[in-house]
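Action item from last week, closing it out:
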Amino acid sequence: MACAMALTLDEAATMLGVSSSTVQRWSRQGLLGARMPTGEFTFDAHELRRWARNNGLTLKPLGGLKAAVPIKKVDPKLPFVAALERGAIFRGLPGQDPVAVLSALVGEVPLTENRDRVDLKSQLLRREAMSTTGLGHGVALPHPRTPSARFAQEPRVFLALLDQAIDWNAIDGEPVHSVFLLLSPDPTRHLTILSRVAFLLRDADFCSMLARKVEDDVLLTKMAATEATCR
């Protein structure tokens, strides 16, 4: 499964909380998967997270998604883009139905306690059981019914661009190809992000870009430009 981010040796070491030489040694011993397309170690972020979970390690964040609009320059009037930059974009996430996709997506969310991960998945499934989060236009927006700082100190959005669209019982009957997981610490900011997503989905070009799975920087630039027109 491919992830949106390829990591260097130093970045992998930072996330694992060990030295670069340790990561290099683990890789040469076959304990940690690595690629060397140009003679230098590179790591798939998703595979690194999975390896860390399987070995009881907690990854440290790198500081958010590398975006076309750096977080320090993001206009405070762009809360959705800022939330996505605190999260990540994933490609090729596994799952043939909403439950499987949500399970895989929750597995990528950086949480301190495993019990929080279990609770988050449970809350997402309960929310789906109440009514679908399939908004139409090929997009689903799963989220806990009640915002909680347990899952995010600041609003965070995790976008999964699925390899194959799946049935999400969306309101327009169309299969879902893009899943935005929203985690918010409080109701006010939660509702703000929800409203911004609804605004973005009114833009046909944005919806087309999601369906075509354009590159991350192109997608983020479009999101920022469109959200900036929201008043």
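Closing note: The first helix runs from residue 9 to 16.
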